[in-house]
Amino acid sequence: xxxxxxxxxxxxxxxxxxxxxxxxxxxxxxxxxxxxxxxxxxxxxxxxxxxxxxxxxxxxxxxxxxxxxxxxxxxxxxxxxxxxxxxxxxxxxxxxxxxxxxxxxxxxxxxxxxxxxxxxxxxxxxxxxxxx
Length: 132
What we know:
Elements: E1 2-6, H1 10-21, E2 25-30, E3 46-49, H2 55-60, E4 68-71, H3 76-89, E5 94-98, H4 102-110, E6 114-116, H5 118-130
Parallel strand pairs: 1-2, 1-4, 2-3, 4-5, 5-6
């Protein structure tokens, strides 16, 4: 699979390394070159510096050939905007968007975006542990 990941923080870097290790073609986009250090020297994917809501940056990342686009920056608005661009402008088949704010997550999910909300996942897991 051809996967473009926007955001090379802890989640994006871990995901990129794992998916590349499984044999997927992975491209990572981040605003700062320092973020790419999280990937290590053995990362086999491609790196693109820039903002993932910029169509030129997305072109450099090969978005038009992507099977999956994952938006995992630390900004909900950036993630949602990039996810919409990937889906609506470039027609990426599968788009996954991290949204920290539970209220926004529900709204964007209802609009058809595939969302992940770490806030809800974490709270649910804590409740589960407490009920054991």
